[in-house]
Amino acid sequence: MLAYKQYVTISDPAKMELTNLPFHKGQRIEVVMIAEDDKVAQVDELRALFKTTQALPQAQAISEDMIAEEIEAYRAGR
Question: How far is it, in rounded angstroms, from Cα 27 to Cα 11?
């Protein structure tokens, strides 16, 4: 299996053009698109939110036992 990576900046979200590909006419390929920047920013924002939430006084009062009880109650449908 030949893997080929090419970075492209999207200028029109309705279409994308790739040129000079190392494949033959009629060759079946799999196309996988991964947006790099947006995902990293979202993960960083989520981590910051978790850190802020965990620092709240209300969160400090929650014990591991309380969390386990809440999970058990949820799973039991209570």
Answer: 27
The model's pLDDT over 35-64, given as tens digits with 9 standing for 90+, comes to 776 667 788 889 999 999 999 998 888 999
Residue 78 predicted with pLDDT over 90: no
* Mean pLDDT over each residue of the chain, to the nearest integer: 89
Task: Give the whole-angstrom CA distance, residue 5 versus residue 32.
Answer: 10
C-alpha distances in Å from residue 37, one per residue of 34, 48, 64: 9, 17, 35
Cα of 71 vs its chain's centroid, Å: 25
Give the gyration radius of the chain's Cα atoms: 23
Sequence spans of domains, the chain: 37-75
- Total count of residues recorded for the chain: 78
Phi and psi of 43, rounded to 5°?
A: -65, -40
